[in-house]
Amino acid sequence: xxxxxxxxxxxxxxxxxxxxxxxxxxxxxxxxxxxxxxxxxxxxxxxxxxxxxxxxxxxxxxxxxxxxxxxxxxxxxxxxxxxxxxxxxxxxxxxxxxxxxxxxxxxxxxxxxxxxxxxxxxxxxxxxxxxxxxxxxxxxxxxxxxxxxxxxxxxxxxxxxxxxxxxxxxxxxxxxxxxxxxxxxxxxxxxxxxxxxxxxxxxxxxxxxxxxxxxxxxxxxxxxxxxxxxxxxxxxxxxxxxxxxxxxxx
Length: 250
What we know:
The protein is of the alpha+beta class. It is 37% helix and 20% strand. The protein has one domain (40-237). It has seven helices and eight strands, in the order ααββαββββαββααα. It is elongated, with a radius of gyration of 23 Å.
């Protein structure tokens, strides 16, 4: 065959395209298990960080500290066709609150029980997510981690830094005086206030809305925990059967 002919050029191009596509397909298929494992480890690591646990052997630490994985719907533990860990929060939050099945992770650390709730929402440029860990009263925040896909570096992307996340421990989900975690500029010393990100207002609003929306399915479950904790704490919060979970407001 004449290597200078158009026919040769077309055949060569087709063969190369098919060959490269086949190699890429093989590479993607062979690497997928490793990619899936990395996603799993990152998820476990984020859950552990929300309760203050970090280390290199993530699988072992997760098995040690996460004692239960529950599926919650309308504040009640339910049976599900998939495990709590395998629930896709992006799909879950697209449903009406009463239809959502969401995961809840119970942790035991040095004799203390904690509850970890996953979050999923929208930032300025794309999805944002995170985990909020609550103390044994089902109300006080122990820790929080947040992540993003495409937020602006130095602005909205700051939600993934300690500067923003370290404000959450000790904050309350609900009290008698005010219901909500207010992201605000300036003074944020209140029990339900955190300082917003300078120049990242839309991302801050996204975090605010994400927390408000994602906590709704857990409302009855958390209230039941609070109602069964020590009476002095319940009286301080003023919890009653009519108490509602936070409706976050900026």
